[in-house]
Amino acid sequence: MIPLMKNAFLNEFETREALSRFVLRTPRLSMDEKCFEFEKAFSGFQSRRYSILFNSGASANLALLQAVKNLRILREGARVGFSALTWATNVMPIIQLGFSAVPVDCDPNTLNVMSRNLIEAIRKHQIESLFITNALGFSGDLDEILNVCQEENVVLLEDNCESLGSSVGGRLTGNFGLASTFSFFVAHHMSTIEGGMVCTDDEDLADMLKMVRANGWDRNLSSTKQKLIRAKHGIQSELQAKYSFYDLAFNLRPTEITGFLGLEQLKYLQYNIGKREKNYSRFEKIIISNDDLITLDRSHMEFLSSFCLPILCKTRDLKMKYVDRFSGAGVEIRPMIAGNIANQPFFRKYCTSGHVLVGTDFIDQCGFYAGNYPELSDSDIETILACLHK
């Protein structure tokens, strides 16, 4: 069996051994110094001013949308577009927080929303925000998408949970929008078992995210910000401030284990994404030579930080041929993310139907993916290559 991911961590034994020592010696396991150290280190990698750590990528999505609502960046009922090829917990917070969820079609050649898809969504639905998913290591033409958003006054948010380390136009994916989310779940580019991050350059948004993460109180703000918010709300003593809650929030805090593992795995991230790209390039050569398959277009990207190996066939029948071939060879596979999310039961229950999403339907019906990660052996890669041949 070639699983989607072999280990919880890169350098599994060393990481588990280091984690064991850390748990035994650290005096506090609730959110503390290691979490803040990881936030700072991740900001350094991503080249963003602020990083706010959460207990999962799903929590990061939820907190980001709550924070922009608290700040009135988006108001109740705002039409929020999102990539139709995405994960459920990118869409659910849009619905849960009272926004109007509008799926935006994706291009089969890139698996992503392209600027032309965005322009069409603005024209047809007058969307006020785009929560774009940079899918499976790939992305749309984000530089052009950003230009359109700026011209049309559309708030751009990025889900970069699957594309950590990819780049477009001299900029890392996750650095185009007002803010971006990341996931450190097992089988992502780096694992903290569970964990997520929001990155932004906006100070007010970063402060609000810290409050949304932890009950709506001000404990993780700077002393200067604490004084300002307490004065604004008439909080007159340190005792009163301990249990004062300033806006709508959750408890989405990570633990020190999350912070420690993040720092450990960040050491290996450049090697990790480099090995994934090298593997993908080998797979891609066979895909190009096989006219049953569609070669994904990454010509607009400077670097592909491959999340997995997406296989997009030209017909549904061909998909079943290759699904049987991969399964028969013992290669674990998955649908192309959640497929067309507008077809999912939760979306049909809570949202209007009738969206025409031709590109995403094609990806859903004709695609699947297999794992791609540094621990793939030469034998594993040869097995996968054999499955890709016509």
Protein traits:
Aspartate Aminotransferase, domain 2, 3-stranded antiparallel sheet, Aspartate Aminotransferase, domain 1, alpha/beta, 390 residues, 7-stranded mixed sheet
Give the number of domains.
2
Order of helices and strands: HHEHEHEHEHEEEEEHHHHHEHEHHEH
Which stretches of 5+ consecutive residues score pLDDT under 50? none
CA-CA gap between termini: 22 Å
Outline, from the CA principal axes?
A: globular
Rg, nearest Å: 21 Å
Mean pLDDT: 97
Strand content: 5-15%
Largest sheet, order of strands side by side?
A: 1-9-8-5-4-2-3
CATH superfamily of the largest domain: Type I PLP-dependent aspartate aminotransferase-like (Major domain)
The major β-sheet equals:
7 strands, mixed
Characterize the structure shown.
The structure is a single chain. The protein is α/β, with parallel strands linked by helices. It has 15 helices and twelve strands. It has helices at residues 12-25, 33-46, 57-70, 88-96, 115-125, 142-152, 203-213, 223-232, 238-242, 256-266, 269-289, 316-328, 345-350, 358-366, 378-388; strands at residues 50-54, 79-83, 100-104, 129-133, 155-159, 167-168, 171-172, 179-183, 196-200, 308-312, 333-335, 367-371. The strands form three sheets. The chain has a seven-stranded mixed beta sheet, sandwiched between helices. It is globular and about 75 Å long. The mean pLDDT is 97.
